[in-house]
Amino acid sequence: MLLVIILVGCGGGGGGGSTPTPDPTPNPTPSNPLYVYGGSWGGSGTGDGKFYQPYGIAIDVNGKIYIVDQNNYRIQQFNEFSTMLLKWGTQGSGYHQFNRPYGIAVDSSDQWNIRVYIADTMNHRIQKYSVSVSYGATPILETMWGSFGNGDGEFDCPIDIALDSLGSVYVTDSNNNRIQKFDSDGNFLEKWGTKGSGDGQFEKPNWIATDSLGNVYITEGAPNNRVQKFSYLGSFVKKWGGSGSEDGQFSRPEDITVDSSNNICC
Description:
The protein is an all-beta fold and 266 residues long.
């Protein structure tokens, strides 16, 4: 978990007159936020608070942290002090089971019952849970949707999930090289993308995020190594990146997030 500190400096102005007084040296205002290391927790294992290849992470409005513990086939919930509060999931394809889950997203519009969406990748489906803020409450499976395939509402390795302010659900359908959009109950709304390297095309899209204006951002690994931006309707807006180690270039970019000021981190 990162602590973000924004430093803002103010410069002084000069005065008039026959004997000018030098301006005080202004404090520089950094153009970027300063990220300060805030600690860590975990370690390899199967016990509470341990992980075996953790992937997706999300934070709800109450400050609870949800982590996809992929190869332990479970979700773990922590407070801001890294104390494990809740876990659920086992290996399998039934209810409350997962097969190599990756991405996770939370809907905090009801702060007393957080909705948690999980990309159950190798089961080729999305699971949606209601998680009460009551200590120790068992997560309730509200719905799940999807199966293996390339039709509307079907998936071939869904990797990540993002939500917009209207409750729409966006899924990176990685091996189908497309994005699918659903309502909060899993009803199919639309899709976009085909295989390729052109604008609006994908080579195994991975991680996804939305901003406060409803724009959608998707990362792609090799060979495209880029980020693409779309409107909420799936219209291509822009792209950036490319293979390399220079500023703004990527080598297999993974997760992506957008902060409250619509800054993008990936």
